Amino acid sequence: MLLRYVRPFTLLSLCLGLMLMAATLSVGASCASGEGQAPTHPTQATGVVLPEDPDNPLGRAVYIKHCKLCHGVDGQMGGSGAANLAVSLLTEEEAALVIKNGRKLMQSYKDRLSVEEIQSVAAYIQLFKDK
């Protein structure tokens, strides 16, 4: 039997390493898949609310459903490496392309959102930018 030749410390290290890797993969996948997470950004616990935009309710609704989990209530959470929307230099058109095609760890939404929804949320996230 192989375990007889493996030192107990080595076996423990291997088990702990596998558990850590599984936990890391699980957390990274939850943000991309839209599963819930406990609030980790201070503004989520202090009552910061999403900006209202009476001219763009669709953009706000799309943000809440698809973006808030990683970008946060104020666009600055950075869950799973999400960009800080408050300091983004992207134009509305560039943001729409990123939403449509994805970038780095952000998944593509072209198969989940309509063109109108992509344009609306790209316009909405401009409200987060530091003026």
Task: Give a short summary of the structure.
The protein has 131 residues and is mostly helical. The chain has helices spanning 8-33, 42-45, 57-71, 92-101, 115-124.
Overview of the structural elements:
The structure is a single chain. 50% of the residues lie in helices and 0% in strands. The termini are far apart. The protein has helices at residues 8-33, 42-45, 57-71, 92-101, 115-124. It is an all-alpha fold and 131 residues long. It has 2 domains: 2-33; 42-128, Orthogonal Bundle (Cytochrome Bc1 Complex, Chain D, domain 2), CATH 1.10.760.
Number of helices: 5
The CATH topology of the largest domain comes to Cytochrome Bc1 Complex, Chain D, domain 2
Any low-confidence stretches, pLDDT <50, length ≥5? Answer: 23-45
What letter string, H or E per element, gives the SSE order?
Answer: HHHHH
Shape, per Cα inertia axes: globular
- The level 1 CATH classification of the largest domain is Mainly Alpha
Question: Rounded to an integer, what's the Rg over CA atoms?
Answer: 19 Å
Overall tally of domains: 2
Average pLDDT metric: 76
- Main sheet summary: none
